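Hello again, I could really use a second opinion on something today. For a while now I've been wondering how a particular protein folds. Please have a think about how the structure follows from the sequence. Here's the protein in full, and shout if anything looks odd to you:

***
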Amino acid sequence: MATKSFILTLLFLHLALLVAGQGKQFITGPCASDADCASGCCGFKSGKCAGAIIAQERDGGCGFGDAQPNDNAAQALRGGAPAASTVAAPAPAAATTVAPAAQASAGSKGPGNGTGKQFITGPCTGDADCASGCCGFKSGKCAGAIIAQERDGGCGFGDAQPNDNAAKALRGGSKREVSFRA
């Protein structure tokens, strides 16, 4: 009988852990593994959910709790391409996409200054304020590019229409950009 109780306890514990790690934690929230985060990335050094690309730059990668950091979520955003082949290419496209907004918002009063240093969930007046390149269209807060498309109506707070420029940059750009590079 004691063995049955022990087995049931282990089974219950396993089920509880499975339910706990369903990827619902938002960026900057605490996490024990990548599975806890909606972004699929638990910052390797911080143990906080992070945007996949930003974590590679600021947190040593994803995979908190693992022996080695990983870039699994970043690869998924890039369509499965290895990090070395696509990280450098989209960055200039994103900078040229955001540059006009930086000039427009730099002189405005408010939380943004157009320098692209604001972290996710921080206040912004335009995409140029955010390190992620995305100021949530409805919220006016910096957001992960993909998450903003689902939860905030897109990027481009302060613009007449929402955009997905940062999401396109993460995915390797639009067809026009690909043909330009060829």
Q: What stands out?
A: The chain has a mean pLDDT of 74.
